[in-house]
Design goal:
This protein is 23% helix and 35% strand. A six-stranded antiparallel beta sheet has the order 1-2-6-5-4-3, covered by helices on one side. The radius of gyration is 13 Å and the shape is globular. It is built from three helices and six strands. The chain has one domain. A hairpin with a 2-residue loop joins strand 4 and strand 5. 22% of the residues are buried. By secondary structure, the protein is of the alpha+beta class.
Amino acid sequence: MTVYDIPDKEGRVFAFEIDNVAIGRRGVCRVVSEIPGVTLLRRPLRFLSWFRENTFCEFELEGVRFSADEGPWGDDSRYWIGAQPPRWVPQLQVVRQAFLDYEA
């Protein structure tokens, strides 16, 4: 899967985006739930959740909370994935690698 890195002011990747057509909301949650040590906190369960929720997946890895979000209008072509609040954390590399390794 193609990952689009988002660097902070120091050049460290603090978040990334992925194409939403390649995986879908439930697919994002499936990928993160397979990362060793991840606790899935929230996933899209409701019918038409894409219509109501911009943040559709929340999870923790080693005490760091992450989210997967869609743009505020629900029609963006990419999902944003990063720590909450947005900042650089070393655990992001593990999450990022899981999406790089993902094969549809």
